[in-house]
Structure formats: structure tokens, C-alpha cells
Amino acid sequence: MTSTMSGSDLSLRSLRDRPFELLKEMERRSRTVAAGSAPDTGAGREWVGVAFRMGGETFLVAREETREVLGHPAVITRRIQRHRKRGTGKYYVYVYPAKKALAAIKAKIKAWCRQNINLPLKVLLIQLNRMLRGWAAHFKYGCSNATFSYLRSYLWKQVIRWQERKQRRTPWKQLRRRYGIWPSDGGVELFDPARVSARRYYYRGTKIAAPWPSTA
């Protein structure tokens, strides 16, 4: 079915990649049919809806039927995989920190450890601890133990290399006696991501209250 708009034939199929223009065209056609094919004067109640795409298909939903509009995240921070549980024949969904998120936090750690080595170790530890505590708190819900252990090893190597660049003439044994194997300075200890207890999401489907009345 086609209609005339601005002196040209416009098909609804041609607007499938432009959901908002498709919504306007459907509203215009509905007004025309409701008015007996008479020109629409703009009077009456407007139909307001939300257009979205899912799986390559375009959908339209009335505004009063829309509960929440979620934006597309700029960065995917988690990866979801379905695996068979070890020792059983059942499959479960596992949530891991995304590789891009791990690469981003590693880049930040490396950037801080490549800064001015004239700063005291305490200042470096404070900056790293603030960043790592927030990152670990965000990813502790999921299968993150292996990621936290890997990040712990990477963090320790970067801080130790920073100490060796700062005090090139001081042997490692003396640095270890002064700051400890796990670096600390002035009462500030380096945050250990491996000590964060990761927890998986538990099934709560039967405990979540439904927003609509039950029809049973």
C-alpha cells in the first residue's frame, strides 16, 4: 500500500530502516482514514509511541504500554556464555568480565605506573586503589575469580617495575624489606583484587513481584 506525501509516492516498506519517520507516516494515514479520507487538520488526540529495533526487525509500541526505555550501552563490560557445569549434564549461563573491560583497566594501570617516578609510592598506591576498588566492585557479581587473579599478577608486576625505575641502584632484596613483597607505604597497602569475593547471580524469578496483576 502506498500513499502520496509531498507529491511523491511513499511506501511503508521503504521506511523500515527509519522507524520514527515510519511512525509519523502511520499516524498520518490513521488520521486520514479516521477523517474519511479528508485532509487532516491536526485536531484530536495524538497517538504517541516508541519505535525500536530487535533482531533486525522494527517494532512500534504505544507510549502507555512502555514501562522503561533502556539506551544501548556505549561499552559492553560483560560477556555472557552458556556452558555445561563441570561434573553434571546441565547447562548454565555464566557471566564474565569482557575482554575490552580488562584491557581498559590494564591500560589505566600501565598509564599510572608510567607517570613521574619522583612521586612517593604512597601517592601511586592511593590512585591505583581508588580505581581498582570501583572496578572490582562492579565485576564481583559473576564469574570473575580468574580475572581478579590475573589482574593481581599484572598489577604487582607493574608496581614493582615502577619501584625499580624509581630506585635503580637499590637491589630488590632491600626494596622488599622496605616496602614488603606486596607493596605498601605510609600505612597504605596496594589493593588486592584477588581478595574480592566474586558472587554469581542467583535465580530470583519466583521472588520478583510482577508489575501487572495475575490472571491465574
Please identify the structural class as seen in this structure.
alpha+beta
Beta content: 15-25%
Give the proportion of residues in helices.
25-40%
Number of DSSP helical runs: 5
Please state the average pLDDT score: 78
Radius of gyration: 29 Å
**Uncertain runs with pLDDT below 50, 5 residues or more?**
1-9
Secondary-structure element series: EEHEEEEHHHHEE
Q: How many beta-strand elements? A: 8
Strand order of the largest sheet: 1-2
Shape: elongated
Described by strand count, sense and barrel closure, the largest sheet is: 2 strands, antiparallel
**What separation lies between the terminal Cα atoms?**
41 Å
> How many domain units?
2
General description of the model:
The protein is α+β, with helices and mostly antiparallel strands. It has two domains: 2-65, no CATH class; 97-195, no CATH class. Helices cover 37% and strands 18% of the residues. It has five helices and eight strands, in the order ββαββββααααββ. The chain has helices spanning 19-34, 99-113, 121-139, 145-166, 172-179; strands spanning 2-5, 8-11, 49-54, 57-62, 78-84, 91-97, 184-185, 188-189. Helix 2 packs antiparallel against helix 3 (121-139). The two termini are 41 Å apart.
Compose a concise summary of this entry:
By secondary structure, this protein is of the alpha+beta class. It has 2 domains: 2-65, no CATH class; 97-195, no CATH class. It contains 5 helices and 8 strands; from the N terminus they run E-E-H-E-E-E-E-H-H-H-H-E-E.
